Amino acid sequence: MFAEIVVNVEAPLAGTFHYHVPKDLRPSLHIGHLVEIEFGKRLAQGIIVAFSGAAPVEETKPVIALIDEQPVIFPWQIELARWLSRTYLTPLNACLRLMLPPGLSRWADITLDINPYWDGKGRLTILQEQILYSLRENGDMRGKQLARTLKKWDKTIKKKDWLTAVNQLARRSIIRKASVLDPPRARAKQIRTAELIAAPERWQTAVTQLGRANKQADVLLYLLNSDDPLPPETAVLAAAHAKKSHLKKLETAGLIHRTPGQTIVTAVNPATAPPEYTDFLNHLPAPASQLTIHNSQFTIHQLQEQNLIRLTEEPATINLAIPPQEALPRILELRGAKTYYDILTLLAQEARPVPVSQIYAETSANINHLRKLTKLDLIRLGNEEVWRDPLADRDFVPAQSPLLTPDQARVWGRIKMAMIEAADDKARTEPAEVVTRGQGDKVTDEPHPVTLSPPHPVTPFLLHGVTGSGK
């Protein structure tokens, strides 16, 4: 089995070439497939345009590999390319190349490296020495890379000069040379995505530790997580390693409420108290600071000595002055970590991989924020293949057809009349209609009389006009 192949190279090639198909590729190869072949001493792409059971030459090379499982050219495109080649005397491979998807073609190149078994002996030209120096400095190189390197050394050097030197070195086994194909430029469009992978409890806890250190934020976080609704001020300061100045700022901002420490007076045995103290004891318990306004300190001490009252010292306390659900955003704002919270909230709401561009648009995030969250195993970065649609964001409103210019109207009038005459011609040349009529108990078939005239040939029109004239 042989494949007739059009070689996709820059050189103009009018004909096709026959390659034999290996047994393992026979079930998968079809007309229009793009395959990898050896053309001369280099690798190249080829398009299968036909199959045959014989080849016009005795020795053929094998098809090396199938590049794309889907045919890149349809049979009707192959016929069109053949017609273009015959009609306009154009190389067939140039005609087919016009129909290939953009960026699919791969051009041949060479790879070069120094032969490790070379003993370092032998006379070399200056150019050959420079080639070997470049290979020693850079390791394995492609032909295009070597050309750029040599251009820096000598801007006047030409491709045929350094390629001749390379071939001479390869023949002397000083360097090793191989043919390769560049990868296709056309690739599926990939977008970077981010996805939340942590449970809500975990990321809500972890996000409070992000950002810069801030004592005010530490105080709010302690109050938010504390089981005591009114923790002592000293306990809060010790836990957050904060100072009273930090509490003052939070109080001024309206984020906390501070209750100063006070002494509470409580009645112990009001039933045994003298009648003159009954009214006083009935107002207890109460802060001592309020009682001293109407009762002297001597009276309080006297009642305490008589074991009628008890003094209890209550420490200064702190509590949140805002709802708990508002505390977390304020903590993150103080730490400068609100962006992390916005990212995680967005990902939690979407519950799917979200394009990074969307995250950037809806938050003030950048790649550093995402990398930080990735290191903490809160999110996962990935890639997703998407369809290219450059017209997705455009709305096309149907427009009214423009009026014909006088020249266009005159030409269209003649074409329209010719089309009408052709339609009338077709009607006159149709076969006679047969109508069945009854005459008594007899049935006869009589055709309607129709005058037949020979059809007029369809009139072709050749339009002349500059580009943009509305032909």
The amount of helix comes to: 25-40%
> How many H/I helical runs?
17
Global geometry:
elongated
CATH class of the domain at 2-97: Alpha Beta
Mean pLDDT: 82
- Could you name the CATH topology of the domain at 2-97? GIY-YIG endonuclease
Q: Based on the structure given, which CATH architecture of the domain at 2-97 is correct?
A: 3-Layer(aba) Sandwich
Main sheet? 5 strands, antiparallel
How many strands in all?
18
Tell me the name of the CATH homologous superfamily of the domain at 2-97: PriA, 3(prime) DNA-binding domain
Structural class: alpha+beta
Name the assembly state: single chain
Rg calculated over all Cα atoms: 46 Å
What is the end-to-end distance?
48 Å
Low-confidence stretches: 434-445
Describe this structure in words.
The protein is of the alpha+beta class and 471 residues long. Among the domains are: 2-97, 3-Layer(aba) Sandwich (GIY-YIG endonuclease), CATH 3.40.1440.60; 108-181, Arc Repressor Mutant, subunit A (Orthogonal Bundle); 262-314, no CATH class. The protein is 37% helix and 21% strand. It is built from 17 helices and 18 strands. It has helices at 75-88, 92-97, 126-138, 143-153, 159-171, 200-206, 215-225, 233-240, 244-252, 278-282, 288-291, 297-305, 324-335, 338-350, 356-362, 367-375, 406-428, and strands at 2-8, 17-20, 34-39, 42-52, 65-66, 108-114, 141-142, 175-181, 189-196, 256-259, 262-267, 286-287, 309-314, 317-320, 354-355, 379-386, 434-439, 442-447. The strands form 6 sheets. A 5-stranded antiparallel beta sheet has the order 2-1-4-3-5. A 3-stranded antiparallel beta sheet has the order 7-6-8. A 3-stranded antiparallel beta sheet has the order 15-9-16. Helix 3 crosses helix 4 (143-153), helix 7 crosses helix 8 and helix 7 packs antiparallel against helix 13 (324-335). The longest helix is centred in the C-terminal third of the chain and has 23 residues, at 406-428. The protein is elongated, with a radius of gyration of 46 Å.
